[in-house]
Amino acid sequence: MSVIAVMGAGKIGEALLSGLLHGGRRPGDLLFTERHPERAAELTSRYGVEAVEVDEAAKRADVLVVAVKPQDIDPVLVELAPLLGPSSLVVSLCAGLPTALYERRLADGVPVVRVMPNTPMVVGEAMSAISPGRYATAEHLALVEELLACVGKVVRVPESQQDAVTALSGSGPAYFFFLVEAMIDAGILLGLPRAVAEKLIIQSAVGASKMLADTGEHPVTLREAVTSPAGTTINAIRELENHGVRAALIAAIEAARDRSVELGKAHEDQPDKR
Ligand SMILES: NC(=O)C1=CN([C@@H]2O[C@H](COP(=O)(O)OP(=O)(O)OC[C@H]3O[C@@H](n4cnc5c(N)ncnc54)[C@H](OP(=O)(O)O)[C@@H]3O)[C@@H](O)[C@H]2O)C=CC1
Ligand SMILES: O=C(O)[C@@H]1CCC=N1
Predict the structure, then answer these.
(1) What is the tens place of the pLDDT at every residue in 80-101?
(2) Pyrroline-5-carboxylate reductase dimerisation domain location, by residue (predicted)?
């Protein structure tokens, strides 16, 4: 089985470690790098996974998963450049960063797969989209797909769609959490105890998600089934439309896509390997 090293065990890096362990990977097949010793010790005691230095990760791992913030990528690439060759596999989870950035900065032939996952990985319900760089083969892509299938669903997309994917499903869980938060606030306004409002809304979100996933029905059909003639729901829908919620969501997701593009361009002034 491949050894996987996660570089940068923050929110998504930890979600990946924990998701892979839940999905049946053994702690001995996983490694991570982390710059704060206390955080490294905490993760090792929680998951039984070894923290290593970058050179050790590059030596021992078949797959190096880069999970640092896009703003932190430059020193990571400088560190990795002398350590990796065509037999390595780099998997980038970083929003906005194109595979071409890695290819410019690492040795010729180092295969890179760009992935946009999301945090439901911690409960085995990630949505990940994967795209190969110029040196990644069908086998590399299949390996990454198999790895991510342990922690949720996987789709293959052309890399040109990754900024849109990032805005839609990478950030997507945050939009749902935001809606849930706002709906709980509405319950408080209507005089419900907070614990009751939370229970009502969270279970409604779980039920609605399950209907979307299990029935195969279009969201419009499912919404229409809730919306009785001259009933309560249509009054709420009219207010949502009056307040431009649909347009706000479209504009929000477009802004997230634009930021992803911007994050990718921020490294263009760094020197290439030659
Ligand atoms: N959070 C999410 O929902 C998603 C995030 N992503 C992507 O995943 C990446 C990580 O995001 P997220 O987990 O939210 O961010 P975090 O800041 O939580 O995690 C990044 C981690 O990388 C560490 N780090 C930075 N530089 C190094 C280094 N040189 N060596 C080792 N560790 C390092 C950071 O340490 P320190 O604390 O010292 O900064 C931090 O622990 C980003 O590129 C993001 O675009 C993708 C999909 C979803
Ligand atoms: O907010 C971000 O930049 C990261 C990428 C997608 C989700 N979180």
Answers:
(1) 999 999 999 999 999 999 999 9
(2) 159-263
**Ligand 2 lined by 106 (C-beta under 6 Å):** no
Q: Is 162 in the pocket of ligand 2 (CB under 6 A)?
A: no
- For residue 70, how far is its CA from the centre of ligand 2 (angstroms)? 10
From-to residues of CATH 3.40.50.720 in the chain = 4-157
- The pTM assigned to this predicted structure is 0.96
Looking at the CA of residue 54, tell me the nearest atom of ligand 1. Answer: 30
Residue of 7, 35, 259 to mutate, ligand 1, most atoms within 8 A of C-beta: 35
pLDDT digit string (tens) for 179-188?
999 999 999 9
DSSP tag of 126: E
The superfamily (CATH) of domain 4-157 is NAD(P)-binding Rossmann-like Domain (3.40.50.720)
Ligand 2 contact via 95 beta carbon (within 6 Å): yes
Q: Name the 3-class secondary structure at 4.
A: strand
Specify the domain boundaries for CATH 1.10.3730.10 within the chain.
172-259
CATH hierarchy code of domain 172-259: 1.10.3730.10
Separation between Cα atoms, residue 240 and residue 31, nearest integer Å: 47
- CB count within 10 Å of CB 3 equals 15
**Separation CA 140–CA 256 (nearest Å):** 29
Q: How far apart are the first and last CA of the chain?
A: 35
Distance 15 CA to ligand 1 centre (A): 11
ipTM, two decimals, is 0.98
